[in-house]
Specification:
mainly beta; 12 strands
Length: 172
């Protein structure tokens, strides 16, 4: 059964330090018009510390205060809040890399998703296939060229089920 898709634009605007960071988290979300999938998003700061055993560890903390050079993790949570199963491949989340940040290679995550990238927000490909124009010729795009990430959730999303996708950036 072919279902019509609708697109929802979601932009979070918070108060305080994270206003720019959350406002930059512009999402394009597509799912079947009959489905009831809701989105929420958050930004966490990645702190690196040395534990009691002398091992370097990373932890996520609230990003109340951020400065250039800080690593941030954007987390988008999706939930089937309806009573019907959402078909596999129907949940598609497209997220721009926020301005004043640089995507950190290899940090895009989403269990059960296909992840592709774009250098222009229009054409998407896997990291190993994405090309970028540099000095007048095409070459394999590096993480610093990425402007947009797209996740396609490949399996069914049952009523009440939740998933999430995420990626890390460094604040310029």
């Amino acid at each position: 059964m072919m279902q019509q898709m609708k697109e929802l634009h979601l932009c979070s605007c918070a108060t305080g330090t994270l206003r720019l960071l959350l406002a930059a988290l512009g999402l394009l979300f597509a799912v079947s018009a009959a489905a009831q999938v809701t989105l929420s998003n958050s930004v966490k700061k990645v702190e690196i510390f040395v534990n009691e055993d002398g091992q370097v560890q990373r932890q996520l903390v609230d990003a109340f205060s951020v400065v250039p050079g800080d690593e941030l993790r954007y987390i988008i949570t999706f939930t089937n809040s309806g009573n019907e199963v959402v078909d596999g491949g129907s949940v598609v989340i497209t997220n721009a890399i926020p301005e004043s940040t640089e995507y950190l290679d290899g940090t895009a995550f989403g269990a059960g998703t296909e992840i592709v990238f774009s250098t222009d927000g229009k054409s998407f490909a896997t990291a190993s296939e994405l090309m970028a124009k540099e000095a007048g010729s095409d070459s394999l795009a590096s993480a610093q060229h990425y402007t947009t990430i797209r996740w396609t959730f490949s399996r069914e999303l049952k009523p009440g089920e939740t998933g999430h996708v995420s990626f890390n950036v460094r604040l310029k």
